[in-house]
């Protein structure tokens, strides 16, 4: 899909090129005009990839932040403005889909661990899935015992915070704190792994 197939005239494309140039010079008004002019088309493009309205909005925020930061780098040899924006959208949308798929695999792997079946991964299971299980085991091992127990009791055993605190014989505020700390730590470890994957 290109700017031409979307019915963008040369005159309109030229106008957007001027706006993009002004955005590159830090013109906030030009950025607002470019945003209003291109957002409907870019929203549709991103949504077709991520299939979720919330994720689409998040991806678009990332796209326009990148546009604001890198508009000064755009040149005619990189294509027309809309084509350049579409390229950024496609890359960001694909990255989001891959990130969500990794998160889903990790969640499934953690569910296996929480169910006490960490060693039940079949030998013929896809290599990628087995690697996700190993990665989750490493991340979970980095948590404190109370953090691991708190996450398991709430998210996989289905207990309330009060029930979980009673099971571990700790005050409810302590249980909530360890649960929150564990989730933050787990997300941080996942994010670090994602960054390493991108840089690899």
From TrEMBL:
InterPro entries: RNA_pol_sigma-70-like, RNA_pol_sigma-70_dom, RNA_pol_sigma70_ECF_CS, RNA_pol_sigma70_r2, RNA_pol_sigma70_r4_t2, RNA_pol_sigma_r2, RNA_pol_sigma_r3/r4-like, WH-like_DNA-bd_sf. GO terms for biological process: DNA-templated transcription initiation; response to stress. Signal peptide: none annotated. GO terms for molecular function: DNA binding; sigma factor activity. The keyword Lyase does not apply. Residues 134-186 form the RNA polymerase sigma factor 70 region 4 type domain. Residues 34-102 form the RNA polymerase sigma-70 region domain. Keywords: DNA-binding, Sigma factor, Transcription, Transcription regulation. It comes from the Bacteria. Gene3D superfamilies: 1.10.1740.10, Winged helix-like DNA-binding domain superfamily/Winged helix DNA-binding domain. The keyword Transcription regulation applies. Belongs to the sigma-70 factor family. ECF subfamily. This is RNA polymerase sigma factor. It comes from Williamsia marianensis.
């Amino acid at each position: 899909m290109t700017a031409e197939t979307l019915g963008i005239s040369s005159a309109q494309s030229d106008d957007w090129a001027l706006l993009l140039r002004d955005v590159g010079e830090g013109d906030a008004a030009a950025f607002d005009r470019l945003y209003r002019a291109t957002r409907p088309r870019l929203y549709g493009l991103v949504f077709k990839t991520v299939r979720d309205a919330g994720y689409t909005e998040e991806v678009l925020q990332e796209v326009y932040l990148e546009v604001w930061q890198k508009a000064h780098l755009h040149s005619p040899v990189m294509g027309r403005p809309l084509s350049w924006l579409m390229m950024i959208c496609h890359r960001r949308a694909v990255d989001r889909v891959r990130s969500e798929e990794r998160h889903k695999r990790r969640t499934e792997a953690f569910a296996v661990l929480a169910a006490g079946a960490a060693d039940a991964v079949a030998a013929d299971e896809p290599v990628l899935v087995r690697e996700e299980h190993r990665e989750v085991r490493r991340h979970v091992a980095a948590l404190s015992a109370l953090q691991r127990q708190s996450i398991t009791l709430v998210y996989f055993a289905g207990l309330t915070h009060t029930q979980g605190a009673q099971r571990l014989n700790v005050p409810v505020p302590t249980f909530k704190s360890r649960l929150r700390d564990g989730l933050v730590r787990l997300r941080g470890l996942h994010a670090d792994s994602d960054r390493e994957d991108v840089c690899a």
